[in-house]
Design goal:
By secondary structure, the chain is an alpha+beta fold. The protein is 33% helix and 25% strand. A four-stranded antiparallel sheet has the order 1-4-3-2, covered by helices on one side. The relative contact order is 0.25. The model has no long low-confidence stretch (mean pLDDT 82).
Amino acid sequence: MNQEVARSQHTPTERAFTVLLSPTRRGARLARLLTTAHLGAWGLPSESAAHIVAELAANATVHGRVKGRDFQLGLTVRGGTLRIEVTDTRGDSVPPGPGAVKP
């Protein structure tokens, strides 16, 4: 999900943060807290992003949970765009890309 963000004069044009978290409610909560902390440290608004991360992390822990495997949170800011990535642990069933034909 991409979100336009306001840049302050001191914000570099590119920032990135990635972390692996346990697929538990605690891991999902930590994803939200880390998002708020990093965006705040970068001088960016975090409320909307924290809500998005909370939902995506909760989905990853509930629907993509595989014992012994973590989920990944990624935040990237380039120019005025925030990219939020949450990758669940179930890499074995990736949805088809755009234009793919279903079997």
